[in-house]
Amino acid sequence: MFGSQGKRDLSLELQSQIPILRPSIHSRRAKLTVKFQDLYGFAVEGNVDDVNVLNEVREKVREQGRVWWELEASKGANWYLQPENTIGIALKSSLKISALTNAITLKRLIRKGVPPLLRPKVWFSLSGAAKKKSTVPESYYNDLTKAVEGKVTAATRQIDHDLPRTFPGHPWLDTPEGHAALRRVLIGYSFRDCEVGYCQGLNYVAALLLLVMKTEEDAFWMLAVLLENVMVNDCYTNNLSGCHVEQRVFQDLLTKKCPRLAAHLDALEFDVSLVATEWFLCLFSKSLPSETTLRVWDVLFYEGAKVLFHVALGIFKMKEDELLISHHVGDVISILQTTTHHLFDPDDLLTVAFEKIGFMTTNTLSKQRKKQETAVMAELDQRVRRLNSLNLNGK
């Protein structure tokens, strides 16, 4: 349990990490674009209104941090890391009412955001990464990285190609030290799971995990639990079959949740995969501002892959009126990209995603995935046969 001095220290540390952004007087007067670094070191461009929103978000983060510290003081240190504090377990067992109360409290807290200082610990436990790591020898990660050092595969070549293109300009990631750490995590995982190996998009996910988790080993295990337990199968395999299935499920959900918008986009011959493929493969890390992405990940690691559908639908829902009067596919893409890049307040997005989209269960999504799998696999097989035929004819 934290004493009063401990809480003060944590509060001071949190505040020191969340500076107030102050654009110059000239930029305030002229409403010019301003540039600054966010909490995780990413360069951000926005107008003065964006800066004001970011300052409001930073104050919300401080307030949310105070809520977490107060709960630790009243419920006991690390109360949220206890295994019974998951709603599924609490409902299925004869645990005390207090356990169910804790589980509901935790779900609400996580949707409001995990404080940056607590993210590594909370994610590692609640995602299942800690449990996964506990099943192997303590030296597993170090042994793995040493064993694969110097080995060359198609995956290692692609990783080396992608390293300098992963968040270029970041003050740590885009340095020899940052590249080396990211390389070890990605190459280590490519040998742990040869079926996945490496897929473009994972570089952005692993890079952001490194920034949050602080250590390579913890980032490695978060990547492992994400690919092996949180996400659906085959999202990152060679043919991306799982990702294709997710796109089809997303299209079905858009038709169900936003029928007018879906009909309009269909009339424009807009394919949702034009934007949603990157959203799903990079888990929004290339599309949303960093703190908004991490708020999505807070919920993703606790509630599972259905969160990605909520958020993707939320983005379309937020801009439904504007999208309904668009005339070209290019307009749709521009509206969505501009929206995602300026979603500096995570609450704006998550409120729509969870309160205006409606309820979705994992079981319902699983049934929809199974319905789409057959069509996707048939389409992929046809594509392979066509390519083989072209290759034979070209010889």
TrEMBL record:
It comes from the Eukaryota. Transmembrane segments: none annotated. SMART domains: TBC (SM00164). GO terms for molecular function: GTPase activator activity; small GTPase binding. It comes from Trapa incisa. Residues 113-304 form the Rab-GAP TBC domain. PANTHER family: RAB GTPASE-ACTIVATING PROTEIN 1-LIKE, TBC1 DOMAIN FAMILY MEMBER 2B. InterPro entries: Rab-GAP-TBC_dom, Rab-GAP_TBC_sf, Rab_GAP_TBC_domain. It holds the Pfam family RabGAP-TBC. This is Rab-GAP TBC domain-containing protein.
